[in-house]
Write a structure and sequence with these properties.
The protein is of the alpha/beta class and about 500 residues long. It is about 30% helix and about 20% strand. The N and C termini lie far apart (about 60 Å).
């Protein structure tokens, strides 16, 4: 039996309530000695082979603890709960106590995704703050909400992609109980819940993991966000695989969106992301696995067995056609409607997730500005009429006018300043940006990004609802006509026709 098989079959990383106490298990090949400090006492962990240290200790659920590696205390790398944030103790969590209603069995043919950021979606900025609007989203025609990452990250404010304790729902959002209550409420409204997870890098504070083992490698170079995780190590592999299992098993999450998989490298005969899909389905057969790809690389669909993948090329083609912007990655797109049509002809159908806007394509702009309502109406119409799986970004249904900016709350001053400087350098050569960059560390940058649905356009909301109603009965086949000179794109699916004028921004839907 391989090291990975041993970890899978026999032991669950982290802390698990069992009969007689709590089972503690940590992968720590880098440490000479490892103990767990719980209830005011220190207990040595035994060597279980393959770099594992373990012990069953007479402790209670909800007990705070730390692992002590070579005399220094650290949180658990697989902590289920960090109530005091990244620098506080871990807490034992009994996920078996959750009472979560079964979710819908999501079908790609019917999937309409609504991406949201918990901290900016409501005035409360919590899981509980999302719940009152679930029925409204279901009535609109949404079938699943997708949460941007909720793993515990430094500070209180952030997008979530700098998570450090990936098993622990962020305390500022309401922690594990809050997430369980949100999933339960969504399921009771008939909505699925997808969760954005990050396995390509770790946020600031990675020394809290490397104290235990060699989590990182330079074999493939660095990712855009830091050191690459080393999936040749059995403990690192299990760190990701058991995390994916946790969400679909313990929180009954209906699907995972894997962040930027093109930056995740694995040279094993069986790619870790193929193994992840297999392990997820073994635990939750109907859960979806969706990858974000930054380029035309269809390994998730062709080799890894994933259900669908994000591809932003349709967004880029629409954005350039509507705005004329050609900075950065838009330079590869010429603004023609023929390029839009070419993207619409991709054969993958519902296995591609497409959008008019998403967190990246708004938030990674210098000012976090959205498309104008007129531009958005055209882009939305094309996306929602397409045969692909559509994604709406929070507020898009009523043409939200507030920005969605890049914001952080790093507790390390060096990291905070490096983040500010990095943003300035990123946009220094963009011809479309002139002016002062919003400070990502400033609370007002975060507050400016909170939704304001009371100021929403009800006619726009009705337009989106009608498009979603019509698409439910459309056949898969799409006919496309392009009048480049008039800047008009005409789409037909069965008896329904969509005419989108990219010059006047008029949209006509006949069904």
């Amino acid at each position: 039996m391989s090291a990975t098989d041993a970890l899978t079959a026999q032991r669950r990383l982290g802390s698990t309530p069992v009969e007689g106490g709590v089972a503690f298990c940590v992968w720590a090949p880098a440490a000479r000695s490892v103990a767990v400090e719980v209830g005011g006492r220190r207990h040595e962990l035994e060597d279980a082979g393959d770099g594992l240290r373990e012990a069953v200790v007479a402790a209670e659920a909800n007990a705070d603890y730390r692992f002590v590696a070579d005399g220094r205390a650290w949180p658990d790398p697989c902590s289920r709960w960090q109530p005091e944030g990244v620098r506080g103790p871990s807490r034992v969590l009994d996920t078996a106590a959750f009472d979560i209603a079964p979710g819908p069995e999501l079908s790609l043919d019917e999937l309409v995704v609504y991406e949201l950021h918990v901290g900016t979606f409501s005035p409360e900025g919590t899981f509980a703050g999302v719940i009152p609007r679930l029925r409204e989203l279901r009535g609109l025609g949404v079938t699943a909400v997708e949460l941007m990452p909720v793993a515990t990250f430094p500070g209180n404010r952030g997008w979530g992609y700098d998570g450090l304790y990936t098993y622990a729902p962020h305390p500022a959002y309401g922690g594990p109980a809050g997430l369980a209550e949100l999933v339960d409420a969504a399921h009771r409204e008939g909505l699925g819940v997808l969760l954005d997870v990050v396995y390509n890098h770790i946020g600031p504070g990675s020394e809290a993991l490397t104290a235990f083992g060699p989590y990182f490698t330079d074999r493939f170079g660095r990712t855009p966000w830091g050191d690459a995780l080393d999936y040749a190590q059995s403990g690192v592999r299990e760190w990701a695989l058991q995390n994916a299992e946790l969400w679909v098993r313990d929180y009954r999450i209906d699907g995972l969106r894997l962040d930027a998989v093109h930056t995740l490298q694995d040279d094993a005969p069986r790619h870790v992301l193929a193994e992840l899909a297999e392990r997820v389905r073994a635990v939750a057969p109907h859960a979806l696995v969706i990858s974000e790809m930054g380029r035309d690389d269809f390994r998730p669909l062709e080799e890894w067995g994933h259900d669908a993948m994000w591809l932003d090329d349709l967004h880029h083609a629409l954005h350039v056609a509507l705005t004329g912007e050609r900075d950065g990655y838009y330079a590869a797109f010429d603004g023609s409607l023929e390029r839009v049509a070419a993207e619409l002809r991709r054969p993958e159908g519902a296995r591609l997730v497409v959008c008019a806007q998403n967190h990246d394509q708004v938030g990674n702009r210098a000012l976090g500005d959205r498309l104008s309502p007129e531009q958005l109406r055209v882009a939305q119409a094309v996306v929602l009429f397409s045969p692909f799986t559509p994604l709406l970004f929070q507020g898009e249904e009523y043409a939200e006018r507030r920005p969605f900016r890049f914001f952080t709350d790093h507790v390390d001053p060096f990291i905070a300043n490096a983040t500010r400087e990095g943003r300035r350098r990123e946009f220094a050569n963009f011809t479309g940006f002139r002016g002062e960059m919003p400070d990502p560390q400033a609370e007002e940058t975060f507050l400016a990004s909170r939704l304001d649905p009371r100021a929403g356009d009800e006619r726009h909301r009705a337009f989106v609802a009608e498009l979603l109603r019509v698409r439910r009965d459309l056949p898969r086949e799409l006919e496309i006509s392009v009048d480049e000179e008039a800047r008009v794109l005409t789409l037909r699916r069965g008896r329904a026709t969509l005419r989108a004028d990219f010059r006047t921004h008029e949209v006509e839907l006949r069904s």
